[in-house]
UniProtKB/TrEMBL annotation, chain A:
Origin species: Halorubrum tebenquichense DSM 14210
Main location per the UniProt record: membrane
Keyword check for Ribonucleoprotein: no
Molecular functions per Gene Ontology: ABC-type phosphonate transporter activity
Membrane topology: Multi-pass membrane protein
InterPro entries: MetI-like (IPR000515), MetI-like_sf (IPR035906), PhnE/PtxC (IPR005769)
Cell membrane among keywords: yes
Taxon lineage: Archaea, Methanobacteriati, Methanobacteriota, Stenosarchaea group, Halobacteria
Pfam family, one: BPD_transp_1
Keywords for the protein's UniProt record, in alphabetical order: Cell membrane, Membrane, Transmembrane, Transmembrane helix, Transport
Annotated ranges, domain ABC transmembrane type-1: 75-258
GO cellular component: plasma membrane
Membrane-crossing segments per the record: 21-39, 79-101, 127-150, 235-257
Protein name as it appears in the record: Phosphonate ABC transporter inner membrane subunit
From TrEMBL, chain B:
MF terms in GO: ABC-type phosphonate transporter activity
UniProt keyword terms in alphabetical order: Cell membrane, Membrane, Transmembrane, Transmembrane helix, Transport
Topology with respect to the bilayer: Multi-pass membrane protein
Name of the featured protein: Phosphonate ABC transporter inner membrane subunit
One cellular component term from this protein's GO annotations in UniProt: plasma membrane
Domain of life according to the entry: Archaea
Family: Belongs to the binding-protein-dependent transport system permease family.
Taxonomic placement: Archaea, Methanobacteriati, Methanobacteriota, Stenosarchaea group, Halobacteria
Membrane-traversing stretches: 21-39, 80-102, 123-150, 215-233, 239-261
Chain ranges of the ABC transmembrane type-1 domain: 76-258
UniProt organism field: Halorubrum tebenquichense DSM 14210
Record Pfam families: BPD_transp_1 (PF00528)
Localization, UniProt: Cell membrane
PROSITE patterns: ABC_TM1
Cited InterPro entries: MetI-like, MetI-like_sf, PhnE/PtxC
From TrEMBL, chain C:
Keyword Hydrolase: no
An example Gene Ontology molecular-function term: ATP hydrolysis activity
Coiled-coil spans in chain: none
Domain ABC transporter: 3-247
Species for this entry: Halorubrum tebenquichense DSM 14210
Comp. bias regions, Low complexity: 282-299
InterPro entries tied to this protein: AAA+_ATPase, ABC_transporter-like_ATP-bd, ABC_transporter-like_CS, ABC_transpr_PhnC, MetN_ABC_transporter-like, P-loop_NTPase
Keywords, ordered alphabetically: ATP-binding, Cell membrane, Membrane, Nucleotide-binding, Translocase, Transport
SMART domains attached to this UniProt entry: AAA
Record-linked CDD domains: ABC_PhnC_transporter
SUPFAM superfamilies with a match to the protein in the record: P-loop containing nucleoside triphosphate hydrolases (SSF52540)
Transport as UniProt keyword: yes
Protein name (database record): Phosphonate ABC transporter ATPase
Amino acid sequence: MSEADAARSWRRFDRRRRIGRFSAVLVALVAFAVSWRFLDMGVTNVETVPREIRDLLTRMYPPDLAYAPEIVDPLVETIHIAALGTLGALVLAVPVALLAAENTTPNAGTYWLGKLIVTVSRSVNTIVWALIFVVVFGSGPLAGAVAIAFRSVGFLGKLLGEEIEEIDFGQVEAVRAAGASSTQVLLYGVLPQVKPALVGLSVYRWDINVRDSTILGFVGAGGIGVQLFRAVNAFAWQSVATILIVILGVVLVSEGVSASARRMTR
Amino acid sequence: MATEERTWRRPTAFGRREFKWAGYLAVVGFFLWSAWGIGADPARIASGFGRGLTLLGDFFPPDATPRQARRIVDKMVESVAMAMISTVTGIALSVPVAFMAAENLSPRPLYYLNRGFISLSRALNAIIVAILVVKAVGLGPLAGIITITFKTVGFFAKLLAEDLEDIDMGSVDAVRATGASPVQTLAYGVVPQIIPRFAGLSVYRWDINIRTSTVVGIVGAGGIGSVLLTAFNRYSYQYVSAILVAIIAVVLVAEGVSAVVRRRYQ
Amino acid sequence: MTLDVTDLRKTYESGDEALKGVDLSVGGSETTAMIGPSGAGKSTFIRCINRLTEPTAGTVELDGTDLTALDDDGLRAARRDIGMIFQEYNLVERLTVMENVLTGRLGYVSAWRAFRRNFPPEDVERAYEILERVGLGDMENKRVDELSGGQRQRVGIARAVVQQPKILLVDEPTSSLDPETSNTVMRLLTEIAAEREVPVLINIHEVDLAVEHADRIVGLHDGEVVFEGLTSELDEGALDRVYRGGDPPASRDATAPGGSTAPGDSTAPGDSTAPGSPSRNGSDSTAADGTADDGSAGDRAVGNGVVSADGRAPDRSTSGGS
């Protein structure tokens, strides 16, 4: 072997990957610095933050447990909103998914219509949908449930559509070859194949919706957020703490229910 | 052949048909209760439908005066800048949290503390966090940054901690067996195992943060959300739809960038 | 009952001419086996009969009704009379055996009854009888994904037979099965068809299975019929034409297909299999046949809208493959 080989150097990554990684980190840091300058943040501004947060937390302690009975009704309302919103979304999402899946959509126009619905629904936040539906239905939980439904359609439509694109088309064909109608083909050829996904995704979205429906109250769309907003504005921090604890509990429970329900459907 | 015709019923997962019907009945009953609970009577929905069509008409076409347009751009840049900063700070903060929340690397009390922090961050919606932070540090983008950072830590530290728990302890032990210090063990035994997913998740979270940064302004935490709320309150719906179009555009661009980067990296 | 196919042609969007004018009649209660190398157009031909693949030209007449001229509703009604058995079984994996068999009766019940699995008692009784006939007597509540390959193909047969079809189309019924099961399935198929006096058209690439179970053989090469006759008439020369595109003897009026196709052309299955000895092809050619034949047909199928029952592909690029 030649002399040069003896002095081989070793680097963990080849040159291109190292440059790639380096520039990624660089871009992130530059973006960070530029943004910081743009927002005129300064440093003193940030220094006081830990103290202010600690202040707030101290005022929250101890939570006002006597307040708990007052939030039972809003809490139940929140759960209703999440449930109905998910149900509505599911009803709307099935046709949207059929449009947005390449193998079931009738033509290119309907395919793009499906994609458009999915995109708009997903890009607009729940609280913005709630602003819109409060104008439509007036203040109250109905607006909230519709907002939740409109937000969830995109999520369910997209994921369900992807699931439909994955199905074994041979099974669909066999049902069609027996002389089944379009509806029957959907019922026997498509539905059984996507049923686990359908159940799993709905339960998962319901879980997310429980969280989302806690904020609807800020724009007047019902749920526990109404109470929370009121307590915050009254600086009743101990009541706020109680509400937060309750929300945390509900969210954890719904997460557990959702996880075990998804495990059960195979 | 048997003279009597046999019947067949689909076997049910509930064991007995009575249970199945009871189950269905309970579900239907629950949804009816929900509908009643949120005041979803048909008359209200029907009148809302009419008003919805009117509102849709008011939305079109999206329109903004030059001044409004400039404001949209200004505040949109603010949103994006907030997202940039909080992604970097959030990821930076989530690394220590993740290590402390990994069952195999962290002592018990510290583990539970950090797990609790992660659960709290994930359970509370960004809007709720933003409201509290605004009360603590005042209106403006700083509140938004703190909110999004907090949410980022919850998301990121959880996934990172799970990755850390899944790492192959064999190779960690192997590095340690060569006499490496704890820091060296981390650098050579742990970090290489989690880096690939880390990069993908960062970009994914950045995408989510862009979405969040466009709404936290609704409760005063900076960004385009405040403009949206003002426009809603002034009933200038064409302006509203112009803002919504801008939000959807930015969200789509972020999603596209994130998807491309993740695909190229993996 | 007769099936008359006249000048059937299929050209795929890619420009592949899968069928170049095929004429064929099937009638009475005979079993006709269609043999040919992979890519010869066997699957396309079968699928064009019930228009899972839309033929480009030609007519398919079932008891005098031209299937190619039917609208959606007419086609659905016509498909009730055509039982089809697939290579990959194509059973709905997550449904029970009984539900899969009853799929064959969907053309006769409303969507609502189908949704509730509320089939007429005589349909259920018939399904039970057929399940017993194919040897799955107590399996009706098993989910299909729990069954073995042979059992699945029996369910496939039951599903087709419960339609009380006027003809059975069978597309490579054995290529996913081991040799022994293949034989049993073929025997079962031909026996049931004979009992019910239903003619059968089978696509099959295993020549010895075809010879053993069929009454008549049709040889397809490169989209054209190059042999048609009784099983006993299938000689080495005929096999040579079918599998190698060799020049036909003067006694046959079929024109030589792809005369330029030299022997040993890559489409011919298993060159190691001497064309003179009709032994079963190797498993590798089995696989090749399956993928190649289905590749063209299956790709198209993916593009079909479920909502349009006619099987016409929407004008989008197809995705996914089969």
